[in-house]
Amino acid sequence: MATEPVVALEIGTSKVVALVAEIREDGHVMVTGMGEQPSTGVRKGEVMDIGNAVASVRAALSSAEESGDVNIGKVFLAVSGGHVRSVVNRGNTPVLDPGYEIGQATLDEVGEVAAAAPLPLECDKIHTIRQHFYIDGRERATNPAGMEARTLSLDMLVVYGMRSRLNNTIKVVKEVPLDVEDVAFSGLCSALSVLSPEQKQGGVLAMDMGAGTTDFVAYADNVLAAAGAIGVGGDHVTNDIAIGMSIPTSQAERLKVEHGTAVQDVSDETLRVSIPAEGGSPSRSLSVKALQTIAHARVDETLQIVRTRLGDLGLLRHIGAGVVLTGGGAKMKGMVEAVQNVFNLPCSMGKPRNISGLAAASEGPEYATASGLVQYAFKVRGESRRKQGGGLLNWLMGR
Amino acid sequence: MQGTRMLIAGVGGAGCRIVDSLAAVAQSGPVFAAISTDSKALAGCRIATRLKIGAPRDGVFGTGGDPSSGGEAAESSREQIERLFMDVDLAFVIAGLGGGTGSGAVPVVLDVARGRGVMTIAVVTMPFPFEGQDRGEKAKQALDRVRQAADVVVVIPNARVVEDGETRLRDAMAKSTDIISTGINGIWKALARPAQLGFDFSDLQALVRETGGSCTFGFGDSVGKDRAAEAVQALMNSPMLARGELLAKASALVVSVIGGPDLTALEAEKIMKAVSEKAPESAHKLLGVMLDDNWRSHVTVTVMVSESWGDVSLPGERGAATTPAVAEAGPATARRRGRKPAATQTSLELDMIDKGRFKGVEPTYVDGDNLDTPTFTRRRISVKP
């Protein structure tokens, strides 16, 4: 075996997924084990009931252990929730070298300054990711080492979230009990899994539509330009339907999956669907148009919010390569069209890249986060080996 | 009204000092931020969110007391300021008027907040008389602009903070900071906590609006057996309310009582009655009682009173004090500005009905909308199942 396998764990709102994977010499990732469980105790991407969540995680991990034939001791953990945000922080540092040559010390220094973004109270960094260096505040440079300058600046994207929420998710893993090797933002994982280098170069929005949250990351100019999450997902569509139709949530979920569309496409206004009697409520027939109106309103609103976020950052005109969708919510009929309508950009479904082994993990958009987390994990391990856990890891990963 | 996200921002030297001392007392709840042109002043702050505004060249020295450069600094940092107000429902913006940053930047900060649909309460101090006429003039002009940009303005003349000639300058400054932070504490708690007997921001706004948009406050607190009577006594002795004089003249007042779990109904009633009696019978009153586990055996009564502040009222607002009672003034008439998002009252009602699956979960707010409420309800789309 080339390397120690990694275990990626995603404690989602609708499901808990654990993947066991190994990396081959050529950098290709093989999934060797998988466990999946319906999730309980999680709402909108955040842990609400630690006890229930622990039970789901244990079940998912034990089936991953069984199918992967490994003992799991530590995991990489995906985190999300509407509290996750990002900010670009510019760090400046004078070049102290007598010949004004930028050396490792200056690079380390500027990285540290740029990573020290002021954050709202009670927030922790999840990632600090380099964007561009600037020489004397003007020229942009990718690798300024050895160049001459008076001051060196660096733009750093800092992804952060509320400490208590992040800790709750970590706590679940500790209760199992397991160690957390590192945490990563779900939206970033999904993007790592499905985006091609060409898309990143051209500017792209990767949107992961989960049950509890809609995560997004945007690349512009080959760097990660923004990341965030909105605490709205497929559960909201279900809930809206349940309320609008006055039916139980379980029936609303079924209706959504079978007849829900992200765009309104019914020409026949009188089309109706009947639902069976359940839990004391009699059988009824419901208007498909009403159902689609409800779903469309929610999807449209959520997309508009993401669009506004990116628009506020001036990023919309930088995402020439369009929008790539992942997550279970992306499977809703008409979603690609809805995205195209809102963003006025090409849109496609994301497919996990450079990963093989289990069909489910490599194909479904709902497994993009877990498979991206596997790739992230190998990246982190690679960096730490090269740097022996030194400064680089710290400021690449922000912890 | 659970889940009101508050930001308490101090602008300029005095504002930062006050926020710093506020943050030291409040364990949790609102987010605190310090905004200044002066990086030295920011460095002295112990809170996590510190924003230096203006060009780096403006350097460490601030504005040199020039409001227009304070305004420019804020304009040039609009984006960063805007980020502070992201996902905030209600913001206190605190500043001392008369200097450069406070006077110049506050109107801009309020404007940014307004642009994001955030409700704002500006709490500003007016300079001590010994600070000179120039500062006094600047402060008055700035107050005018603050009045136009904020939803509610609380004015605290520093002159009232100190008793005649008794205090040393350094102590006077410290005392001003102290009093203001205690007062703000009383108000934000009243708005943040689900009050046992309460009011919310729209009530407050309606009341203040009606009286011309500006007010001041005083407070009294006490511990022990006779705390109710003593707190009222302390309030009446407070120079902030000119020893009860302002209360007697008030056309509107907001009384908030914070007590521990041991506060009895009788005590609360006693305080309310004692304070109400001091105000004219015709005055409009908002009363709120908040229970705080950390306030055991302690009681604080904070009173905001309307005060028409010199000649700074906006055109058309004069004589507004004769408008009908608050209870009858619906949100529509209470709100002068059409630009604000629809009344918070509406969304409050919806919250209670339509939580469904998200009961017990912290609501998701974006731009003042609770996204857990179905979109079709908020967009007022009629659905016929």
Give the helices and strands, then pairings:
The complex is a heterodimer of chains A (399) and B (385).
Chain A: E1 6-11, E2 15-23, E3 29-38, E4 42-43, E5 46-47, H1 50-68, E6 74-79, E7 85-94, H2 104-115, E8 123-135, E9 139-141, E10 151-162, H3 163-175, E11 179-185, H4 186-194, H5 197-202, E12 204-209, E13 214-220, E14 223-230, H6 234-245, H7 249-259, E15 272-275, E16 284-287, H8 288-312, E17 323-326, H9 335-343, E18 347-349, E19 355-356, H10 359-363, H11 368-387, H12 391-397
Parallel strand pairs in A: 1-6, 3-19, 6-11, 12-17, 17-18
Antiparallel strand pairs in A: 1-2, 2-3, 4-5, 7-10, 8-9, 8-10, 12-13, 13-14, 15-16
Helix pairs in contact in A: 1-3, 4-11, 6-7, 6-8, 8-9, 11-12
Chain B: E1 6-11, H1 12-25, E2 31-36, H2 39-43, E3 49-52, H3 67-76, H4 78-84, E4 90-96, H5 101-115, E5 119-126, H6 133-149, E6 152-157, H7 158-161, H8 169-192, H9 201-210, E7 214-223, H10 227-237, H11 245-249, E8 252-259, H12 265-278, E9 284-291, E10 298-306, H13 331-334, H14 344-353, E11 365-366, E12 369-370, H15 375-378
Parallel strand pairs in B: 1-2, 1-4, 2-3, 4-5, 5-6, 6-7, 8-9
Antiparallel strand pairs in B: 7-10, 8-10, 11-12
Helix pairs in contact in B: 1-5, 1-8, 3-5, 5-6, 10-12
Descriptive report:
The complex is a heterodimer of chains A (399) and B (385). Chain A contains twelve helices and 19 strands. With 399 residues, chain A is of the alpha/beta class. Among the domains of chain A are: 85-159, Dna Ligase, domain 1, CATH 3.30.1490.110; 196-352, Nucleotidyltransferase, domain 5. In chain A, a hairpin with a 4-residue loop joins strand 12 (204-209) and strand 13. The longest helix of chain A is centred in the last third of the chain and has 25 residues, at 288-312. The model of chain A is unreliable at 388-399 (pLDDT under 50). In chain B, the strands form two sheets. In chain B, strands 3-2-1-4-5-6-7-10-8-9 form a ten-stranded mixed sheet, with helices on both faces. A two-stranded antiparallel ribbon of chain B has the order 11-12. In chain B, helix 1 (12-25) packs across helix 8. The longest helix of chain B has 24 residues, at 169-192. Chain B is globular, with a radius of gyration of 21 Å. The two termini of chain B are 32 Å apart. The chains are: A alpha/beta (399), B alpha/beta (385).
